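Give me structure tokens for this 506-residue protein.
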Amino acid sequence: MAFGMQLSQRLTQSLVLAPQLQQSLALLQAPTLELKALVEAELQQNPVLEEVMETDVESREKSAAEDNESTSSADLAEPPDDVKFDTPDTTPDAPPDKDSADGTDDFQAEFEKLVQMDQEWRDHFSQASSPIRSTTDDEEKRQFMFDSLTAETSLAQHLVDQLRETDLDEKEQAVAELIIGNIDDYGYLNATIEEIVAQTGLSLEEVTDVLDVVQGFEPVGVGARDLRECLMLQLERARLDRSLEFQIIRDHMDALGKRRIPELARGTGRSLDDVQEALARIARLEPRPGRAFLPTNEQYVSPEVFVQKNGDDYTVTTNDEQIPHLRISNVYKDLMAGGGNDAEVKNYIREKIRAGKFLIKSLHQRQTTIANIGREIVKRQRDFMDKGVAHLKPMTMAQVAEVVGVHETTVSRAVSGKYIETPQGVFEMKFFFTAGLQTSSGSDVSNTSVKDMIAEIFKSENTSRPLSDQEVVKMLTDKGISIARRTVAKYRDELGILPSNLRKVY
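Here you go.
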């Protein structure tokens, strides 16, 4: 067999995103806080860009309003240039004409377009509707919330602070610190007594005594080795170690977990009512003592779109206040217009100005796209805006994309991670895009509305005879909604509702 090398040609197609297209998509997809970070990075990299301060914006808005009293906001709905997120203008500009004096005529034409674009951009911000302003009471509540925030203390630190107030000697404190180090975020001890004995060299009795001290700390139930011990510690601290609930937890934990009320009644020799009352008290105990010390994952969102009822109609505005207002620095405009610079400097500034112009147009197009999507959402979900979640209609991104005039993927990027403030509350924009079920009358109802109906059905059920999933299917069928039993079970699980055998009250 002979081996050798040969040269061949092959034609292939591949999709390569131009840098400007990548930037446009990044701006469109980024929520407000991320967008500000992206713009700040561009400000650091592009010297010709500068951010307009709030005082400058106010003065420009005032002068623009005086100069353009007859201009309607509808005239400014379109971006100042033909740049769309679906087909951004990423074609390199033609090189300057070598026969012209360093391309002076080309530069002059560019500056005229730049001035026009800059004016239109200022007009847009001066005449665009502003989002709903917070009242004085809202601002005071918001400030009070921020002033009330405190530094979080971990569970381990909380236990160590209590350990320092005990009378344990140095050797016992070292054992206690080892025990605390093996307590997880939920408050349970993850090491066995035997393992701690092996690490410390102390006797089983000595380690057990130290564990008893730690289990006496707050929160109640901390240091338990399992759920049974955790609940018993809480009852003992409340001096209920002779109660029916303590007996149930100590002797019948398996039947308690499966909620076998008749079996518990027989095992304890008490009535069904007594057992159910005991179970209600057990339900008020804390199965995870360390829960209060878990790090909070609360996220504060800034809505991108505001919907406000105005008479019989709804007004949709975008959150332009949070978007940085950019412009091309006059220093570089004057530098270019004045001449006297060599070709290399001019080409550098020319490219930076082009990049800055594209960024400004992309930001404007981002706001326009999000606003148009928001208007279409409100138009299609008018019943939701008036009456709530139960009246949410099925809606796909393809339907909205067709009306707005963009690709479906553009809608997906535009609503990703963004929120809309409505009269019914603040929702993720993706919330409004749901599949639907067809009713017997031929109309469509969204999956979210069906889930809301199922929640209401379970909420009003007879607890002594809880509804099965199949019975819920029949009830929805009577309302004209055809749905499978497994779908009801899936929605029930998502709603956090237990199966019928675990919901029964005797």
